[in-house]
Every structure is written in structure tokens, then in C-alpha cells.
Amino acid sequence: MLAYTRQGCGAPLVLVHGFPLDHTTWEPLLPYLTPHFDVILPDLSGFGDSAALETAPDMEAYAAALVGLLDALQLPQSFVAGHSMGGYVSLAFARCYGQRLLGLGLIATQALPDIPERKASRYATAAQVAEQGAVVVADAMSTKLSANPAHAPILRNLILRQSPIGIIAALKAMAERPDLTPLLSSFTFPVAIVHGLADDLIPPDRSREMKTIISHAHFAEIPGIGHMPMMEAPQAAAGALKGLLAPGLPKDGR
């Protein structure tokens, strides 16, 4: 079973971290979310304290591991919100286990697949990580993840704690993920979309495109914020996620 922590009360909300990180990136949101949600913070397979998958993973395999956790917790349905790669996993969850979703949060992510050049780059990075370890992605990503330079050393140390095996598996799984844009028009459950306007890794237009298709989605663009809204603007990010419970809660504060 996946490693996880759990806090709060209310409807269950699973927060799925991005690449190449772990559940601790969500911790700044907890003061804003735990009064309203039973917040479950898993480490994806191969990250944090969770063991890597035994076979070569795809996004569906990561989603299946989340279902295994929910089964163990005896939760037939939950809200699921994913950041970046966690968004890819959350979309795979929606595709394969949509009946188990109360609602979906998509943070700094996209439904589109990799273009060929990006796919090739991921495989090249995976080969480098196999030779040199997690430092390859720590060097490449730590200063790009957040628009706040103070976060760079924190994120670098977090990346360096991750397993090279987990990083390599995730790179290959991201490279092979399908286009899930056609899935978006089928969503009838609540959806919240969040993107920082200073995101250097995934363009904000990717979220705008999803909002165009999911017309009922609660949509938040956050000026001056990069790829880590949960760390850079936790109150605003949490407010958007509380939109999944709308109209019962205000979108700002607690």
C-alpha cells in the first residue's frame, strides 16, 4: 500500500503530488483545507516512502495504486486533486475509476500528451538519472519549479531525497501518456483548475484549454506564481480547491 498521511474532517480529498516530489509539497495547504476535508496525502509509487511498482508503470498503474489506498481506507468515493504529474495521474483516475470521484482538482497540469521532442527529452533524462542519480533532475528543475527563489533549495533537497528508480519510471510513464483531452467533455462532477501565470514548466494556456472544454469548472489563475501554487500561494490554491464544495464555502480564507 502507498505511504500516506491523513488530517482533517469532512469529505475525503486525496492530494496527488507532482514530479519529482512527494506528499510534503501539499503541507502549506493543510491549515486551509483540514477544516473542510478529510485530507489524504499519499506518496506516489516510487516516491517518498512508497515502494516502486514492480512492473514498468503508466499513469493508469499509478492511479490503480491510489485506488488500492482508498480501498484500504474503506473510501468508496473521494475528491482527487493532482499537481503536474499528479494531474496526469488524477486524469487517469477519472478515466479508469470515474465512478469513484466526487470531484477533480487539476493544478499546474494539462490533458495533452508530450510532443515528440519532449518525449525524447524525458527518455534522455531517464538515461542520465540511471548513470548519475537524482542530482540530474535536481539541477535541472529546482530553480524552475517556483517563481520564488527561496523555494529552490527546499525543492532541490526534496528532489535529492527521491529514488532514482522512481524518477526513471515516472519519466518514462509521462513520456508515454495518452491525450486525455477527449475525456474532459464527459466530466459532470465538480472540477477545479488552478494555474500560476508565471509557470515556466507547463504554460497557463494548457489550463485555459481545459476550462474551455469543462465549462462548469471553477478556474483560478494566480498572477506571479510559478509551477508550485500550493507552496507559493497556499491560501489561493486552497480556496480554489474548496470550490469543489461550492456553493457552500467561501473561496478565500478558512
Structure report:
The protein is of the alpha/beta class. It has one domain (4-112, 177-245): Alpha/Beta hydrolase fold, catalytic domain (Rossmann fold), CATH 3.40.50.1820. It is built from eleven helices and seven strands. The protein has a seven-stranded mixed β-sheet with strand order 1-3-2-4-5-6-7, sandwiched between helices. The two termini are 32 Å apart. Residues 247-254 have low confidence and may be disordered.
Task: Kindly list the characteristics that best describe this protein.
single chain, 254 residues, alpha/beta, Rossmann fold, 7-stranded mixed beta sheet, disordered C terminus
Fold topology:
Layout: E1 4-8, E2 11-16, H1 30-33, E3 37-42, H2 59-72, E4 78-83, H3 85-97, E5 101-107, H4 116-132, H5 135-141, H6 151-160, H7 164-175, H8 181-184, E6 191-196, H9 204-213, E7 218-222, H10 229-232, H11 234-242
Parallel strand pairs: 2-3, 2-4, 4-5, 5-6, 6-7
Antiparallel strand pairs: 1-3
